[in-house]
Amino acid sequence: MSIAIAARLNRIQPSQTTAMRQRAQALKAEGKDVLAISSGEPDFETPRHIKDAAIAAIERGETRYTDIAGTLALRKAVVAKFKRDNGLDYAPDEIIVGTGGKQVIYDALVATLDPGDEAIIPTPCWVSYPDIVSLADGTPVLLPCGPNQNFKLRPEQLEAAITPRTKWLIVNTPSNPTGATYDEAELKALAEVLLRHPQVMILTDDIYEKLIFDGRRFATFAQVEPRLKDRTVTMNGCSKAYAMTGWRIGFAGAPRALIKAMDKLQGQSTSNTCSIAQAAALAALEGPQDETEAMRQAYERRRDLVVGMLDATPGLRCHKPEGAFYAFPDMTACLGKTTPAGARIESDWDFVFALLSEAGVATVHGSAFMFPGHFRVSFAASDAQLGDACARIRRFCESLA
Predict the structure, then answer these.
(1) Which of 189, 317, 375, 398 has the fewest Cβ atoms within 10 Å of its own Cβ atom?
(2) In the chain, domain spans
(3) What is the pLDDT of residue 1?
């Protein structure tokens, strides 16, 4: 019997960041010397008090179903977090907890998009935004935002892209893969455009909120323009700030009617997020924040190391990220060249494939983030690993003929 796969799956691709990580792991399993700086995952351990909270929850028998939207205790802690960190007022029934930030985004888009509805996505962007929009029957509208504009969307671009079918603007700050971070004035300028188009909702992905550099202050849409709060989904989570990627905890504040719709959808997909992970997330949000700050400081130091080495590499230009833990160098000067093994560099994919095969460094090609001619380096790795990886990248680039 042949298996008939639904046509909707033809609209999407497997995650290319995951594919690169898996390829690097396979080479390592073969005994190859591979430095993987491709993954968007903190290299730090989950803080001890968070682990202890999860263990205590198991011992207390908190191993049963919870409310679909999350335990009341955790939703109250999210309410407190939004008030404390962002000056936003939500009620517990305006909060949802999902199995990672990705599920929260998926819930919001699937619950609202009809065929032909458009979602504006500035690029470079996280790999999953366009595919989730497509899977939800929507149309991704990709707006290139290059290094000449610090990888940030400009108000005039947004204005020109909005049509009667525009339903969403998706903004990620700090950004994956560029680290671009919108300040209050930049968000305010975009908000002025959005106020003229009341049909457009805003999904702001703030998952890297705590990882911001150079003394900048974080800002989010509903905070800088309260008149947009009733059509904004403010998404965040525990994965990046607390080194909890595997715990799968994302959350959002949004208008009550939308949270109800997302709850309905989640109830027929995963139902509640793991009860033990929710107990851990409660400890993360309510407990000491000093380890998060220590991680942030380490990422900022590593940022300076990586950008300095890559920007000094022949054929590369590296913009200085303002947050998150990624650098996104331009490699277009390497196009048309040939590696020592005879591989011709015709694209960013050719570049990262040869870099992995010949130099043992795993990165991700810019096309995966809807922005060719670049590649992403994660500096969520030790200083020694990053120094070694960047030295290998330099030698690889110098070897191109």
Answers:
(1) 398
(2) 11-40+291-399, 48-286
(3) 67
